[in-house]
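Backbone geometry tokens:
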Amino acid sequence: MATSTADVLVALHAEHGRGLWGYVLRLTGGDRARAEDVVQETLIRAWRHPEVLTRPPGAVRSWLFTVSRRLVIDQWRAGREISTDEPPETGAGPETWTDEVLDGWIVADALARLTPEHRQVVVLCYFRGLSVAEAARILGIPDGTVKSRTHYALRALRLALEEKGVTR
């Protein structure tokens, strides 16, 4: 168990540094210096937000990858990107797949924080695309209860995602 800030950062880098650097290297078009700068800034942000480090390992990793992706995008938007005419998030390359996987982990972790009743209605109505009536029939509850649970479930889901740094 790490005891000091330096120990925490060393442990964080040891666990996630290689994968994070490879991901950022792809996002920066192979610019090693920029990739190192982005990884360093990502770890500094983790140090500034120690509450992130108390999350499950998968959530910490997804937070780190999300922060690094946003840093690269911010650099591109600020006009520092010189290697391409498109933002790094476009295209169907490996980084798009990685973004989708990371987003899936973030959403899955946020869903896990919901009550079982709330999770059921979100999965049925949003992921399976069922109507309120169909969900109510499957769950054996009134339509109004499905609507109410959906309302409160989406509020709770929004809060859980905001805690993870996901914004609109």
Observations:
- Residues 5-27 form the longest helix (23 residues).
